[in-house]
Specification:
Elements lengths: L12 E4 L2 E4 H5 L3 E7 L5 H12 L1 H6 L2 E7 L3 H15 L7 E3 L4 H5 L14 E6 L5 E7 L7 H16 L2 E2 L10 E3 L8 H4 L5 E4 L2 E4 L5
Parallel strand pairs: 3-4, 4-5
Antiparallel strand pairs: 1-2, 3-6, 6-7, 8-9, 9-11, 10-11
Protein backbone atom coordinates (compact mmCIF):
# COMPACT_ATOMS: atom_id res chain seq x y z
CA UNK A 1 0.00 0.00 0.00
CA UNK A 2 1.37 3.39 -0.94
CA UNK A 3 2.18 6.00 1.68
CA UNK A 4 0.05 9.12 2.01
CA UNK A 5 0.43 12.48 3.68
CA UNK A 6 0.01 12.15 7.42
CA UNK A 7 1.14 8.51 7.47
CA UNK A 8 3.93 7.51 9.82
CA UNK A 9 7.19 7.17 7.91
CA UNK A 10 8.39 3.54 8.12
CA UNK A 11 11.43 3.06 10.32
CA UNK A 12 14.35 0.97 9.08
CA UNK A 13 17.92 -0.04 9.75
CA UNK A 14 20.31 0.30 6.82
CA UNK A 15 23.91 0.39 5.71
CA UNK A 16 24.88 3.79 4.37
CA UNK A 17 27.91 5.63 3.07
CA UNK A 18 28.42 6.83 6.66
CA UNK A 19 27.86 3.49 8.42
CA UNK A 20 24.83 1.65 9.77
CA UNK A 21 21.88 3.75 10.91
CA UNK A 22 18.50 3.35 12.53
CA UNK A 23 16.39 5.88 10.66
CA UNK A 24 14.40 7.16 13.65
CA UNK A 25 17.52 7.38 15.82
CA UNK A 26 19.35 9.23 13.06
CA UNK A 27 16.54 11.78 12.80
CA UNK A 28 16.09 12.38 16.53
CA UNK A 29 13.90 15.48 16.84
CA UNK A 30 14.87 16.87 13.43
CA UNK A 31 12.87 17.30 10.27
CA UNK A 32 14.02 15.11 7.39
CA UNK A 33 14.34 15.03 3.63
CA UNK A 34 14.56 11.46 2.32
CA UNK A 35 15.04 11.20 -1.43
CA UNK A 36 15.71 8.31 -3.79
CA UNK A 37 17.76 7.84 -6.94
CA UNK A 38 17.43 5.22 -9.70
CA UNK A 39 21.04 4.17 -9.26
CA UNK A 40 24.59 5.38 -8.75
CA UNK A 41 26.53 7.24 -11.41
CA UNK A 42 23.39 8.71 -12.96
CA UNK A 43 23.91 12.20 -14.39
CA UNK A 44 20.90 14.14 -13.12
CA UNK A 45 21.21 12.64 -9.63
CA UNK A 46 24.89 13.55 -9.55
CA UNK A 47 23.88 17.21 -9.88
CA UNK A 48 21.11 16.79 -7.30
CA UNK A 49 23.36 15.32 -4.64
CA UNK A 50 25.88 18.05 -5.32
CA UNK A 51 23.22 20.71 -4.93
CA UNK A 52 22.04 19.14 -1.68
CA UNK A 53 25.56 19.18 -0.29
CA UNK A 54 25.96 22.84 -1.30
CA UNK A 55 22.80 23.68 0.67
CA UNK A 56 24.14 22.16 3.90
CA UNK A 57 23.81 25.40 5.88
CA UNK A 58 20.26 26.05 4.60
CA UNK A 59 19.09 22.64 5.77
CA UNK A 60 20.95 22.95 9.08
CA UNK A 61 19.35 26.26 10.02
CA UNK A 62 15.94 24.69 9.47
CA UNK A 63 16.83 21.67 11.68
CA UNK A 64 16.57 19.34 8.67
CA UNK A 65 18.61 16.18 8.20
CA UNK A 66 19.04 14.96 4.63
CA UNK A 67 19.43 11.33 3.63
CA UNK A 68 19.54 9.86 0.13
CA UNK A 69 18.85 6.33 -1.13
CA UNK A 70 20.03 4.26 -4.07
CA UNK A 71 19.70 0.55 -4.78
CA UNK A 72 23.46 0.14 -5.25
CA UNK A 73 26.08 -0.89 -2.66
CA UNK A 74 27.98 1.19 -0.11
CA UNK A 75 31.17 0.56 -2.08
CA UNK A 76 29.50 1.91 -5.20
CA UNK A 77 28.21 4.91 -3.25
CA UNK A 78 31.73 5.76 -2.07
CA UNK A 79 33.02 5.86 -5.63
CA UNK A 80 30.05 7.93 -6.76
CA UNK A 81 30.54 10.39 -3.90
CA UNK A 82 34.11 10.96 -5.10
CA UNK A 83 32.72 11.84 -8.53
CA UNK A 84 30.06 14.12 -7.03
CA UNK A 85 32.62 15.97 -4.93
CA UNK A 86 34.92 16.37 -7.93
CA UNK A 87 32.37 17.44 -10.53
CA UNK A 88 30.09 19.55 -8.33
CA UNK A 89 32.86 21.16 -6.23
CA UNK A 90 31.30 20.05 -2.91
CA UNK A 91 31.80 17.63 -0.06
CA UNK A 92 28.85 15.26 0.27
CA UNK A 93 27.94 15.60 3.93
CA UNK A 94 24.95 13.29 4.40
CA UNK A 95 24.44 9.52 4.24
CA UNK A 96 23.41 7.63 1.11
CA UNK A 97 21.49 4.44 1.92
CA UNK A 98 22.51 1.20 0.22
CA UNK A 99 19.17 -0.49 -0.50
CA UNK A 100 20.41 -3.48 -2.47
CA UNK A 101 17.51 -5.72 -1.44
CA UNK A 102 15.04 -2.90 -2.13
CA UNK A 103 13.24 -3.37 1.19
CA UNK A 104 13.25 0.35 1.96
CA UNK A 105 12.30 1.22 -1.60
CA UNK A 106 9.32 -1.10 -1.35
CA UNK A 107 8.29 0.24 2.07
CA UNK A 108 8.29 3.78 0.69
CA UNK A 109 6.71 2.79 -2.66
CA UNK A 110 9.73 4.05 -4.58
CA UNK A 111 9.56 1.38 -7.29
CA UNK A 112 6.90 1.96 -9.94
CA UNK A 113 6.64 -0.95 -12.41
CA UNK A 114 5.58 1.31 -15.28
CA UNK A 115 8.83 3.25 -14.88
CA UNK A 116 11.20 0.39 -13.97
CA UNK A 117 10.87 -3.06 -12.51
CA UNK A 118 14.05 -2.69 -10.48
CA UNK A 119 15.19 0.93 -10.07
CA UNK A 120 13.57 3.46 -7.78
CA UNK A 121 11.69 6.41 -9.14
CA UNK A 122 12.99 9.76 -7.94
CA UNK A 123 10.78 10.31 -4.91
CA UNK A 124 11.27 12.90 -2.19
CA UNK A 125 9.69 12.84 1.27
CA UNK A 126 9.63 15.59 3.88
CA UNK A 127 9.17 14.07 7.34
CA UNK A 128 8.29 16.02 10.50
CA UNK A 129 9.90 15.42 13.93
CA UNK A 130 6.88 13.30 14.91
CA UNK A 131 7.86 11.01 11.98
CA UNK A 132 4.75 11.79 9.92
CA UNK A 133 5.06 12.38 6.19
CA UNK A 134 4.30 15.99 5.26
CA UNK A 135 5.20 16.04 1.56
CA UNK A 136 5.71 13.53 -1.25
CA UNK A 137 7.01 14.55 -4.68
CA UNK A 138 7.90 12.08 -7.43
CA UNK A 139 9.93 13.29 -10.40
CA UNK A 140 10.58 11.64 -13.77
CA UNK A 141 14.15 10.59 -14.45
CA UNK A 142 14.60 13.38 -16.98
CA UNK A 143 13.83 16.30 -14.65
CA UNK A 144 16.12 17.44 -11.86
CA UNK A 145 14.56 18.41 -8.56
CA UNK A 146 14.10 22.05 -7.57
CA UNK A 147 15.74 22.32 -4.15
CA UNK A 148 14.67 25.93 -3.69
CA UNK A 149 11.12 24.59 -3.81
CA UNK A 150 12.03 21.94 -1.24
CA UNK A 151 13.35 24.65 1.08
CA UNK A 152 10.26 26.80 0.42
CA UNK A 153 7.95 23.95 1.39
CA UNK A 154 9.96 23.26 4.55
CA UNK A 155 9.63 26.93 5.50
CA UNK A 156 5.87 26.74 4.93
CA UNK A 157 5.47 23.49 6.86
CA UNK A 158 7.44 24.77 9.83
CA UNK A 159 5.57 28.07 9.85
CA UNK A 160 2.11 26.53 9.59
CA UNK A 161 2.95 23.93 12.25
CA UNK A 162 3.38 26.74 14.78
CA UNK A 163 0.75 29.29 13.74
CA UNK A 164 -2.89 29.10 12.62
CA UNK A 165 -2.04 30.09 9.05
CA UNK A 166 -1.49 28.64 5.61
CA UNK A 167 0.68 29.93 2.78
CA UNK A 168 -0.81 31.14 -0.54
CA UNK A 169 0.30 30.39 -4.08
CA UNK A 170 3.94 31.23 -4.82
CA UNK A 171 4.51 32.20 -1.18
CA UNK A 172 8.07 33.01 -0.20
CA UNK A 173 9.59 33.57 3.23
CA UNK A 174 8.46 37.01 4.46
CA UNK A 175 5.30 37.22 2.34
CA UNK A 176 1.79 37.59 3.71
CA UNK A 177 0.03 34.44 4.88
CA UNK A 178 -3.57 33.31 5.05
CA UNK A 179 -5.35 33.21 8.41
CA UNK A 180 -7.04 29.90 9.15
CA UNK A 181 -10.81 29.92 8.51
CA UNK A 182 -11.21 28.43 12.01
CA UNK A 183 -10.07 31.73 13.57
CA UNK A 184 -12.99 34.05 14.28
CA UNK A 185 -12.68 37.70 13.25
CA UNK A 186 -12.92 38.87 16.84
CA UNK A 187 -9.96 36.68 17.80
CA UNK A 188 -7.65 37.92 15.04
CA UNK A 189 -6.21 41.01 16.82
CA UNK A 190 -4.97 38.95 19.77
CA UNK A 191 -3.50 36.21 17.59
CA UNK A 192 -2.17 38.43 14.79
CA UNK A 193 -1.29 41.85 16.27
CA UNK A 194 0.41 43.00 13.06
CA UNK A 195 -3.05 43.50 11.56
CA UNK A 196 -4.85 41.83 8.67
CA UNK A 197 -6.68 42.49 5.42
CA UNK A 198 -10.02 40.84 4.69
CA UNK A 199 -10.16 40.24 0.94
CA UNK A 200 -13.22 38.03 1.39
CA UNK A 201 -14.68 36.60 4.59
CA UNK A 202 -12.88 33.35 3.79
CA UNK A 203 -9.65 35.01 2.56
CA UNK A 204 -7.91 37.03 5.29
CA UNK A 205 -4.24 37.96 4.95
CA UNK A 206 -1.75 38.92 7.64
CA UNK A 207 2.00 39.56 7.71
CA UNK A 208 4.08 36.50 8.42
CA UNK A 209 3.76 36.19 12.22
CA UNK A 210 7.30 35.10 12.99
CA UNK A 211 8.96 37.93 11.05
Amino acid sequence: MSLRLGDKAPNFKAQTSEGEIDFYEYLGDSWAVLFSHPGDYTPVCTTELGRTAALKDEFAKRNVKVIALSVDSVESHQGWINDINETQDVEVNFPIIADENREISEAYDMIHPNASLTATVRSLFIIAPDKTIKLIITYPASTGRNFQEVLRVIDSLQLTANYSVSTPADWQEGDQVVISPAIKNEDIPAKFPKGHVEVKPYLRLTPQPNK
